[in-house]
Amino acid sequence: MEISQDIRRKLIQIAAFGFSNSYIGNIPAGRLYKGSWKNFCNPGINCYSCPAARLSCPIGAMQAVGGSPKFIVGFYALGFVLALGVVFGRAICGFICPFGLIQELLHKVPSPKKRIYKPLTYIKYVILAVFVILMPALLTDNFGIGTPAFCEYICPAGTFEGGIPMLLTHPELRAQLGGLFVLKAAILVVTIIGCIVCCRFFCKVMCPLGAIYGLLNNVSFYRVHVDREGCVSCSKCRDICPMDIDPVAKPNSAECIRCGKCAAACPVKAISVGFKRNY
Amino acid sequence: MRMSENRELKTRIIIAIILLAISAVLVTAGVMRGEVFIVFTKAVHICLECIGLG
Fold first, then answer.
1. Are residues A53 and A190 in the same domain?
2. Could you tell me the sign of the dihedral formed by the alpha carbons of A75, A258, A12, A48, in that order?
3. Rounded to two decimals, what is the model's pTM?
4. B41: closest CA among A146, A34, A58, A53?
5. ipTM attached to this prediction
6. Domain boundary among A199, A216, A233
7. Cα–Cα distance between A230 and A210 in angstroms, integer?
Protein backbone atom coordinates (compact mmCIF):
# COMPACT_ATOMS: atom_id res chain seq x y z
CA MET A 1 0.00 0.00 0.00
CA GLU A 2 1.46 3.35 -1.01
CA ILE A 3 1.13 6.25 1.42
CA SER A 4 0.07 9.47 -0.30
CA GLN A 5 2.28 12.55 -0.15
CA ASP A 6 -0.30 14.35 2.00
CA ILE A 7 -0.50 11.53 4.57
CA ARG A 8 3.30 11.26 4.63
CA ARG A 9 3.58 14.98 5.26
CA LYS A 10 0.95 14.83 7.99
CA LEU A 11 2.82 11.98 9.72
CA ILE A 12 6.05 14.00 9.62
CA GLN A 13 4.20 17.04 11.00
CA ILE A 14 2.75 14.99 13.87
CA ALA A 15 6.17 13.45 14.64
CA ALA A 16 7.81 16.90 14.62
CA PHE A 17 5.06 18.31 16.82
CA GLY A 18 5.45 15.39 19.24
CA PHE A 19 9.22 15.74 19.39
CA SER A 20 8.98 19.51 19.92
CA ASN A 21 6.36 19.17 22.67
CA SER A 22 7.12 15.86 24.32
CA TYR A 23 7.05 17.03 27.96
CA ILE A 24 3.27 17.02 28.20
CA GLY A 25 3.51 15.95 31.85
CA ASN A 26 4.65 19.51 32.60
CA ILE A 27 1.37 21.04 31.41
CA PRO A 28 -0.81 20.25 34.46
CA ALA A 29 2.03 21.32 36.78
CA GLY A 30 2.68 24.52 34.80
CA ARG A 31 6.44 24.04 34.90
CA LEU A 32 8.99 24.28 32.11
CA TYR A 33 11.38 21.62 30.87
CA LYS A 34 14.86 22.79 31.88
CA GLY A 35 17.12 20.19 30.30
CA SER A 36 19.95 20.53 27.81
CA TRP A 37 17.70 20.28 24.72
CA LYS A 38 16.79 23.92 25.42
CA ASN A 39 20.28 24.85 24.20
CA PHE A 40 19.02 24.08 20.69
CA CYS A 41 16.51 25.93 18.55
CA ASN A 42 13.37 24.44 17.07
CA PRO A 43 13.34 24.75 13.25
CA GLY A 44 9.77 26.09 13.44
CA ILE A 45 7.76 28.42 15.65
CA ASN A 46 7.20 26.83 19.06
CA CYS A 47 7.13 28.95 22.21
CA TYR A 48 9.83 28.04 24.75
CA SER A 49 7.44 29.01 27.52
CA CYS A 50 5.13 26.18 26.52
CA PRO A 51 5.44 23.72 29.43
CA ALA A 52 5.74 20.80 26.99
CA ALA A 53 8.40 22.44 24.80
CA ARG A 54 11.67 20.59 24.38
CA LEU A 55 13.53 23.20 22.27
CA SER A 56 14.00 26.97 22.15
CA CYS A 57 12.06 29.19 19.76
CA PRO A 58 14.47 30.52 17.10
CA ILE A 59 12.70 33.88 16.88
CA GLY A 60 12.68 34.17 20.67
CA ALA A 61 16.37 33.23 20.70
CA MET A 62 17.24 35.92 18.13
CA GLN A 63 15.46 38.54 20.21
CA ALA A 64 16.92 37.31 23.50
CA VAL A 65 20.47 37.67 22.19
CA GLY A 66 19.76 40.86 20.20
CA GLY A 67 18.19 42.36 23.31
CA SER A 68 21.00 41.41 25.67
CA PRO A 69 23.31 44.26 26.76
CA LYS A 70 26.37 42.66 25.11
CA PHE A 71 25.06 41.99 21.60
CA ILE A 72 22.99 43.58 18.85
CA VAL A 73 22.35 40.57 16.62
CA GLY A 74 21.92 36.92 17.60
CA PHE A 75 24.34 34.99 15.39
CA TYR A 76 23.59 31.53 16.80
CA ALA A 77 19.88 31.36 15.98
CA LEU A 78 20.30 33.34 12.76
CA GLY A 79 23.00 30.95 11.50
CA PHE A 80 20.86 27.94 12.43
CA VAL A 81 17.83 29.31 10.58
CA LEU A 82 19.96 30.36 7.59
CA ALA A 83 21.42 26.85 7.23
CA LEU A 84 18.01 25.19 7.42
CA GLY A 85 16.56 27.73 4.98
CA VAL A 86 19.32 27.14 2.42
CA VAL A 87 18.81 23.38 2.52
CA PHE A 88 15.03 23.10 2.91
CA GLY A 89 13.53 26.56 2.27
CA ARG A 90 9.97 26.82 3.54
CA ALA A 91 9.64 23.03 3.59
CA ILE A 92 10.36 23.60 7.29
CA CYS A 93 7.02 25.45 7.48
CA GLY A 94 5.24 22.72 5.55
CA PHE A 95 6.67 19.70 7.36
CA ILE A 96 8.26 20.59 10.69
CA CYS A 97 6.70 23.73 12.19
CA PRO A 98 4.42 22.82 15.15
CA PHE A 99 2.38 26.00 14.77
CA GLY A 100 1.92 25.18 11.07
CA LEU A 101 0.20 21.92 12.03
CA ILE A 102 -2.04 23.77 14.51
CA GLN A 103 -3.03 26.21 11.76
CA GLU A 104 -3.84 23.42 9.32
CA LEU A 105 -6.06 21.75 11.92
CA LEU A 106 -7.83 25.06 12.57
CA HIS A 107 -8.48 25.37 8.84
CA LYS A 108 -10.45 22.12 8.98
CA VAL A 109 -13.15 23.87 11.04
CA PRO A 110 -16.14 24.24 8.67
CA SER A 111 -16.49 27.84 7.44
CA PRO A 112 -16.40 29.84 4.21
CA LYS A 113 -12.82 29.64 2.88
CA LYS A 114 -10.99 32.63 1.38
CA ARG A 115 -7.72 33.30 -0.42
CA ILE A 116 -5.33 35.81 1.10
CA TYR A 117 -5.20 39.38 -0.20
CA LYS A 118 -1.68 39.35 -1.68
CA PRO A 119 -0.37 42.69 -0.25
CA LEU A 120 -1.00 41.35 3.28
CA THR A 121 1.78 38.79 2.74
CA TYR A 122 4.38 41.57 2.90
CA ILE A 123 3.47 42.38 6.52
CA LYS A 124 5.65 39.52 7.78
CA TYR A 125 8.78 41.18 6.36
CA VAL A 126 7.95 44.40 8.22
CA ILE A 127 7.38 42.36 11.40
CA LEU A 128 10.76 40.63 10.90
CA ALA A 129 12.64 43.90 10.39
CA VAL A 130 10.89 46.00 13.03
CA PHE A 131 9.81 43.63 15.82
CA VAL A 132 12.49 40.92 15.62
CA ILE A 133 15.61 42.87 14.61
CA LEU A 134 15.28 46.62 15.23
CA MET A 135 13.18 46.91 18.39
CA PRO A 136 15.10 44.38 20.53
CA ALA A 137 18.38 46.03 19.53
CA LEU A 138 17.31 49.67 19.82
CA LEU A 139 14.56 49.87 22.46
CA THR A 140 16.58 49.22 25.60
CA ASP A 141 16.02 49.93 29.27
CA ASN A 142 18.51 51.49 31.72
CA PHE A 143 20.43 48.22 31.93
CA GLY A 144 20.78 47.97 28.15
CA ILE A 145 18.30 45.09 27.91
CA GLY A 146 16.13 45.21 24.79
CA THR A 147 12.48 44.33 24.39
CA PRO A 148 11.67 41.00 22.69
CA ALA A 149 9.05 42.95 20.78
CA PHE A 150 7.63 40.17 18.60
CA CYS A 151 7.08 37.89 21.62
CA GLU A 152 5.74 40.74 23.73
CA TYR A 153 3.37 42.49 21.34
CA ILE A 154 2.46 40.00 18.61
CA CYS A 155 3.28 36.29 18.88
CA PRO A 156 -0.02 34.38 19.00
CA ALA A 157 1.91 31.10 19.30
CA GLY A 158 3.34 32.34 22.60
CA THR A 159 -0.10 33.34 23.88
CA PHE A 160 -1.58 30.01 22.81
CA GLU A 161 1.20 27.57 23.72
CA GLY A 162 2.81 29.42 26.63
CA GLY A 163 0.32 31.96 27.90
CA ILE A 164 -2.85 29.89 28.25
CA PRO A 165 -1.30 26.82 29.98
CA MET A 166 0.78 29.00 32.30
CA LEU A 167 -2.09 31.29 33.24
CA LEU A 168 -4.37 28.32 33.91
CA THR A 169 -1.87 26.80 36.34
CA HIS A 170 -0.41 29.95 37.96
CA PRO A 171 -2.93 32.12 39.87
CA GLU A 172 -0.15 34.60 40.73
CA LEU A 173 0.37 35.27 37.00
CA ARG A 174 -3.36 35.71 36.41
CA ALA A 175 -3.35 38.47 39.05
CA GLN A 176 -0.95 40.48 36.85
CA LEU A 177 -3.02 40.43 33.65
CA GLY A 178 -3.45 43.80 31.99
CA GLY A 179 -3.74 45.67 28.71
CA LEU A 180 -0.81 43.85 27.10
CA PHE A 181 -2.49 40.49 27.58
CA VAL A 182 -5.72 41.89 26.12
CA LEU A 183 -3.76 42.99 23.03
CA LYS A 184 -2.09 39.59 22.68
CA ALA A 185 -5.34 37.73 23.28
CA ALA A 186 -7.01 39.88 20.59
CA ILE A 187 -4.19 39.03 18.13
CA LEU A 188 -4.63 35.34 19.01
CA VAL A 189 -8.39 35.53 18.34
CA VAL A 190 -7.78 37.29 14.99
CA THR A 191 -5.17 34.63 14.13
CA ILE A 192 -7.51 31.75 15.00
CA ILE A 193 -10.38 33.23 12.96
CA GLY A 194 -7.89 34.03 10.16
CA CYS A 195 -6.62 30.42 10.13
CA ILE A 196 -10.14 28.98 10.08
CA VAL A 197 -11.06 31.11 7.05
CA CYS A 198 -7.70 31.27 5.26
CA CYS A 199 -5.25 28.35 5.31
CA ARG A 200 -2.09 29.19 7.33
CA PHE A 201 -3.10 32.83 7.88
CA PHE A 202 -0.27 33.32 10.41
CA CYS A 203 2.34 31.87 8.01
CA LYS A 204 1.16 34.06 5.17
CA VAL A 205 0.78 37.34 7.02
CA MET A 206 2.64 37.39 10.33
CA CYS A 207 5.40 34.81 10.67
CA PRO A 208 8.93 36.35 10.76
CA LEU A 209 10.49 32.89 10.60
CA GLY A 210 8.49 32.12 7.46
CA ALA A 211 9.74 35.43 6.07
CA ILE A 212 13.37 34.32 6.52
CA TYR A 213 12.76 30.87 5.05
CA GLY A 214 10.73 32.46 2.24
CA LEU A 215 13.61 34.73 1.28
CA LEU A 216 15.77 31.60 0.96
CA ASN A 217 13.20 29.63 -1.08
CA ASN A 218 14.72 30.81 -4.33
CA VAL A 219 18.14 29.31 -3.59
CA SER A 220 17.20 26.33 -1.41
CA PHE A 221 18.27 22.83 -2.44
CA TYR A 222 14.85 21.34 -1.65
CA ARG A 223 12.57 22.96 -4.22
CA VAL A 224 9.70 22.72 -6.67
CA HIS A 225 10.58 21.68 -10.22
CA VAL A 226 8.21 22.35 -13.13
CA ASP A 227 8.48 20.71 -16.53
CA ARG A 228 7.11 23.61 -18.57
CA GLU A 229 7.08 21.58 -21.79
CA GLY A 230 4.97 18.88 -20.15
CA CYS A 231 2.56 21.29 -18.43
CA VAL A 232 -0.94 21.26 -19.96
CA SER A 233 -2.01 24.51 -18.19
CA CYS A 234 -4.98 22.89 -16.47
CA SER A 235 -4.53 25.13 -13.36
CA LYS A 236 -5.24 22.25 -10.98
CA CYS A 237 -2.00 23.03 -9.12
CA ARG A 238 -2.99 26.67 -8.68
CA ASP A 239 -6.48 25.74 -7.48
CA ILE A 240 -5.24 23.30 -4.84
CA CYS A 241 -2.32 25.38 -3.51
CA PRO A 242 -2.95 26.18 0.18
CA MET A 243 -0.58 29.16 -0.02
CA ASP A 244 -2.55 30.79 -2.89
CA ILE A 245 0.28 30.77 -5.43
CA ASP A 246 0.60 29.57 -9.00
CA PRO A 247 3.31 26.87 -8.89
CA VAL A 248 3.84 26.96 -12.67
CA ALA A 249 4.29 30.73 -12.87
CA LYS A 250 6.45 30.94 -9.72
CA PRO A 251 7.48 27.47 -8.52
CA ASN A 252 9.82 28.79 -5.85
CA SER A 253 7.77 31.70 -4.61
CA ALA A 254 8.61 32.97 -1.13
CA GLU A 255 5.16 31.76 -0.08
CA CYS A 256 5.63 28.13 -1.18
CA ILE A 257 5.86 25.71 1.77
CA ARG A 258 6.81 22.73 -0.45
CA CYS A 259 3.78 20.75 0.74
CA GLY A 260 3.64 18.87 -2.56
CA LYS A 261 -0.11 19.21 -3.10
CA CYS A 262 0.54 20.74 -6.53
CA ALA A 263 2.71 17.78 -7.56
CA ALA A 264 0.07 15.31 -6.37
CA ALA A 265 -2.67 17.18 -8.25
CA CYS A 266 -0.80 17.48 -11.55
CA PRO A 267 -2.45 15.08 -14.07
CA VAL A 268 0.70 14.85 -16.25
CA LYS A 269 3.29 14.75 -13.45
CA ALA A 270 4.92 17.95 -14.68
CA ILE A 271 5.63 19.12 -11.12
CA SER A 272 7.99 17.50 -8.66
CA VAL A 273 9.16 18.55 -5.22
CA GLY A 274 12.50 17.49 -3.81
CA PHE A 275 16.25 17.87 -4.04
CA LYS A 276 16.31 16.61 -7.64
CA ARG A 277 13.91 17.00 -10.54
CA ASN A 278 12.33 13.75 -11.68
CA TYR A 279 11.48 14.54 -15.31
CA MET B 1 17.67 27.35 -23.27
CA ARG B 2 19.44 24.40 -21.69
CA MET B 3 22.67 26.44 -21.35
CA SER B 4 20.96 29.33 -19.57
CA GLU B 5 19.21 26.84 -17.26
CA ASN B 6 22.55 25.26 -16.40
CA ARG B 7 24.09 28.67 -15.73
CA GLU B 8 21.18 29.58 -13.47
CA LEU B 9 21.56 26.27 -11.63
CA LYS B 10 25.28 26.83 -11.13
CA THR B 11 24.73 30.39 -9.83
CA ARG B 12 22.05 29.18 -7.44
CA ILE B 13 24.26 26.41 -6.08
CA ILE B 14 27.19 28.80 -5.60
CA ILE B 15 24.96 31.26 -3.70
CA ALA B 16 23.57 28.43 -1.57
CA ILE B 17 27.06 27.14 -0.71
CA ILE B 18 28.21 30.66 0.22
CA LEU B 19 25.14 31.08 2.44
CA LEU B 20 25.79 27.70 4.07
CA ALA B 21 29.37 28.76 4.81
CA ILE B 22 28.09 32.05 6.29
CA SER B 23 25.60 30.14 8.44
CA ALA B 24 28.39 27.88 9.74
CA VAL B 25 30.46 30.96 10.62
CA LEU B 26 27.47 32.58 12.34
CA VAL B 27 26.67 29.51 14.43
CA THR B 28 30.32 29.08 15.41
CA ALA B 29 30.67 32.78 16.30
CA GLY B 30 27.41 32.64 18.28
CA VAL B 31 28.55 29.60 20.25
CA MET B 32 31.99 31.10 20.90
CA ARG B 33 30.65 34.38 22.26
CA GLY B 34 28.30 32.64 24.66
CA GLU B 35 24.93 33.09 22.95
CA VAL B 36 23.85 29.53 23.75
CA PHE B 37 23.91 30.37 27.46
CA ILE B 38 21.70 33.44 26.86
CA VAL B 39 19.23 31.37 24.82
CA PHE B 40 19.20 28.57 27.41
CA THR B 41 18.70 30.98 30.31
CA LYS B 42 15.79 32.66 28.53
CA ALA B 43 14.22 29.32 27.56
CA VAL B 44 14.23 27.71 31.01
CA HIS B 45 12.48 30.60 32.74
CA ILE B 46 8.88 31.63 32.22
CA CYS B 47 8.92 34.23 29.45
CA LEU B 48 6.54 36.91 30.72
CA GLU B 49 6.62 38.70 27.37
CA CYS B 50 5.53 35.53 25.55
CA ILE B 51 2.64 35.05 27.95
CA GLY B 52 1.51 38.65 27.57
CA LEU B 53 2.53 40.06 30.93
CA GLY B 54 5.45 42.13 29.62
1. yes
2. positive
3. 0.93
4. A34
5. 0.92
6. A216
7. 31
